[in-house]
Amino acid sequence: MAKAKRALVEHRPWLLAGIAAALAFYFLWNNPIGGLWLIAIKGAAVGSLVIYTWRWSVGTDGTILAIVLALAAAADMAIELWFEVGGALFALSHAVAIVLYLRNRRERLVLSQKLLAVALFAVTPAVSYLLSGDLLILVYGTALGAMAAAAWTSRFPRYRVGIGAVLFVVSDWLIFSRMGAFDLGVLPDVLVWPLYFAGQLMIATGVVQTLRGEKTAR
To answer: Are 186 and 173 in contact (CB under 8 A)?
Structure first.
């Protein structure tokens, strides 16, 4: 355990770099420093988590997680230029994440955990469509809900990875609220990015520390 903690400290600079980039984008997103610079800063946030994951990668599951985050980082940048392309990359990221979580399903689930997983799978696309009124968002919401449900039922820490996936869902709901009749005022501008990045950070660290801890124990 002590070795795992020391190794984590050595890799922390990449986590700090990701957090720094996320904070920079949050405070500069409406600053006239230039669109391409902002896109690069945005991509660097989750992009740093990719490097953290890759350097800390353990076996096939670690590689899959790195791919999930790399697709998300690409989506973060692409969505600034073309919403549909960014959405497609996020959907692909969710599909790969589902593979990761299904490979690591929790052996035993209590009834409440099963019910919440079903609720995430069913409610996420329904609310996504209700907020946006867009059938493409309904399709995307299905992938998003499946990802969140799979994360919740995986063997990874539920209060890290599971909640991280839920934060991702809420962040997307706030984005979809801009597309339909629901006016949430400034809430989307204030909360979308922090919720999204916090979710990705929790997912990355939760999965990586679990995999690495298991390797150290062996």
So the answer is: no
